[in-house]
Amino acid sequence: MCGIVGYIDQDNRRCAANMHELVGAMADRVAHRGPDDQGTWVDPDSGIALGHRRLSIIDLSPAGSQPMVSGSGRFVVVFNGEVYNYLEILEELKTAWGTDVSLRGHSDTEIVAAAFDRWGVEHSLPRLIGMFAMAIWDREERSLWLVRDRFGKKPLYYGRFGSAVLFASELKAFYPHPSFRRQIDHDAIASYLRFNCIPSPRSVYCGVKKLPAASWLRISLLGRDQGPHVYWSLEDVVRASLSSPFVGSDEEAAEGLDRCLRSAVRRRLLASDVPVGLFLSGGVDSSTVTALAQAQSSIPIHTFSIGMSSSHYDESKYARAVAQHLGTDHTEWELTAPEAMSVIPEMPGTYDEPFADASQIPTLLVSRLAKRYVKVVLSGDGGDEMFGGYNRHVLAAAMWPALANIPAAPRRWAAKAIGLVAPRRWEDLVQRAGPAVPSHLRLAYLSDKMHKISLALQASDPQDLYLRLISNFEESSAIVGHGSQDGSIPAGAEPWLSDQRPAESMMLADARFYMHDDILVKVDRASMAVSLEVRSPFLDPDVVEFAWRLPLRFKIRDGVGKWVVRRVMSRYIPASITDHPKMGFAVPLADWLRGPLRDWAESVLDPIHFSHDGLVSSGAVRTQWAGFLAGRNDLTDNVWCLLMLQGWLESQRSPAQPGYVKAN
Description:
The chain is of the alpha+beta class. The chain has 3 domains: 2-232, 4-Layer Sandwich (Glutamine Phosphoribosylpyrophosphate, subunit 1, domain 1), CATH 3.60.20; 247-387 and 502-578, HUPs (Rossmann fold, 3-Layer(aba) Sandwich); 588-664, no CATH class. The strands form 3 sheets. It has a 6-stranded antiparallel sheet with strand order 2-3-1-9-8-10, with helices on one face. It has a 6-stranded antiparallel sheet with strand order 4-5-6-7-11-12, covered by helices on one side. The protein has a 5-stranded parallel sheet with strand order 15-14-13-16-17, with helices on both faces. The longest helix has 27 residues, at 502-528.
């Protein structure tokens, strides 16, 4: 895992020393992504400069240092991430060349560069199984390739400013370049307020884009630029898998997933020359990955979890029970409001652009905890998107077919009736009913789920339902000065299988948008802020393909998601340990903001701040805060979104920062 930066500018070429200094300054901005080594490479005649910060995981020797020149001398590579099947690619190269492959070391980067020598960049990419962002300079064709992995686990920003094209793992690396100008994109802010993050390909700055997942972009000095072009399509995988569905029994489905996941976990354990641990929340996905990892290890694997001071949100007891049963070396840390407050000021610098998934707080802290012991961890990310793990998937599968046949007026009345019950009352009602309520209905965060049911009752079709469920401010453009939000599903989430498959359509949309722009961003920035690599076995291509071949009944059954994953987990962990409500990685945010964090929140949301920037209506801010204080928990995400926006704006106000531009 590393940080990559660079630029290409033929019109403003500098001497080699100045180019090394400039790209080195860019790389220093992402030093946290790679504290073990640094390097630069420049070609003044072409105006190309590449910079790298290294987190040494595979081949810890200087032979793994970057930028790296391929064996033929044609390609110069800066690489962020890991390719787990690099040894398989090496064997394929030996077969293709009919001889041994001469290598300086044994890093995955060197083998990927050798693949480029043999097959070229475009034809090598489909062979790579891993997570990565790369920049490759082709010295022969004088062209720069920018590449990103299948799911966009590793970030890559790029933009053209005058004659210069800049690229980097994080936006802050653009700041030292004299051509870069930080001008806020108001439309991006409107999208942020709606979705808690800025959907790809936009970024918060005008002129800067995120390279889409599974894509390459080619910038040529000899001809026209090409791309972004897609080299792998999740939609194609989904359609092909659904056209050839799995036809086996329940037990055969569990055995098939066990086999795929076990292989994916093994790949991620072996592709490392440093110790590997696991994030263990106590939920289905992380517990399953932990079980499969421990089953393949001869020593106790280190596991890490974060507990909450509020028992309503605390999963640490479940994680502890799983760790004890499996025999892992377990470490946990309890998160309190003061500890959360201590890291909140770090969020703008960690995420570079407004980002408001509140689980960013425990993610950063569990990453810090793990970094004390290991350099690499495995996580359960991707399980929800591939196996129907979100409440909206279950809602779409269980409710939408029936709701679609009910006239709009009765549905609106039912939604209004749900709204008449104060949010905090839902938990009280279920608690009083006690054993009369079936276990699968005794849900954590019931008020939030009832709010979502209310939204579902108001939806006109599955796409409208999805948009309602993932939105904060439904009319965000109304509170953003000069911004617009077209009210559509974010780019990347718009391919729908059909309205006849609402649950599967939502899973696909979540994989292309929510996972891509929220979950994976949250984990990458939090973990790399402390120089920790996170790997996700559920996003292995073989697991993904198998998941989509499974008919929906293997994913959602009896009103519960991830049925087949639970079946695999039960092979290793007794149900008595794992049978508890799904919590996710949530924090008691509403309680904190009304309690120990209230004074801080009110100071941040002072209308004078928002009036100063002119981005958001100060009246709208006051309305949201007042409604939240009155007990509307459904406004918690809106308030947090505004708090994180203001924190980011504060970080942008220093004219001393290179490239500073006041928002218009």
